[in-house]
Design goal:
Largest sheet: none
Shape: flat
Number of helices: 8
Order of helices and strands: HHHHHHHH
Helix content: over 70%
Distance between the termini: 53 Å
Number of strands: 0
């Protein structure tokens, strides 16, 4: 193996682990918060609907890089001290939760209203109707959009390099400065990002086939 490639693979491998950890944790957080926001958005209680709509409007209209800078440099100023990795992961979870919420809300709207009425006629509460009747049907239309959110989140982790996190793009910048191998570093980084997105698409396709209704 050429020396130039061997020199960059170690740091890039470390950066890849950080990228994968950040992507997995941030997506899990976005999924949990997104479900709560979606419940607020479709709630019959007006203040909850306003709260959900306000959150989505604010977070979807602020660039992620601006949010990262605000949280990384703003939280310590108000006495909230977290590691840089935790701060960036939290910020990404908060940001992408707004998009997850809209995917879930759109998916829920694909379920005919009569299904909710039938659930209520059977005596189910609003929560039971969502859990046992609406969500299982809505899930089929959510798989690919959620995969799109996951891929967007994975690619956006590269912005963490701008605030000092040595994830994959940050390590590519580091190795470029140290070994003067920009083409090797960023070509390898590009290949890994493409592999992550292609794998995510394949997994989403498998899940979509699994939850599809076969008539």
């Amino acid at each position: 193996m050429p020396d130039g490639i061997r020199e960059v693979l170690g740091p890039l491998g470390h950066g890849l682990l950080l990228t994968l950890a950040m992507t997995g944790l941030a997506f899990a957080g976005a999924l949990v918060l997104g479900v709560l926001l979606a419940v607020c958005r479709i709630s019959p209680v007006p203040p909850l609907r306003v709260l959900g709509a306000g959150y989505v409007t604010v977070f979807r209209n602020i660039p992620l890089l601006v949010l990262l800078v605000l949280f990384v440099f703003g939280l310590p100023d108000v006495g909230l001290l977290f590691s840089l990795f935790a701060t960036v992961t939290l910020t990404m979870a908060l940001y992408w939760a707004a998009f997850v919420c809209e995917v879930l809300r759109a998916g829920i709207r694909t379920v005919p209203f009569g299904q909710a009425e039938a659930a209520r006629a059977l005596g189910l509460t609003a929560g039971q109707s969502i859990r046992y009747v609406i969500l299982p049907q809505a899930l089929r239309s959510m798989v690919q959009p959620l995969a799109g959110v996951f891929i967007g989140l994975a690619l956006s982790t590269s912005l963490a390099a701008a605030v000092g996190v040595a994830e994959m793009t940050g390590q590519a910048q580091f190795t470029t400065l140290k070994y003067d191998q920009p083409l090797t570093s960023f070509a390898a980084t590009t290949v890994v990002y493409v592999l992550i997105t292609l794998t995510s698409g394949l997994v989403a396709g498998r899940i979509e086939k699994k939850v599809a209704i076969h008539r």
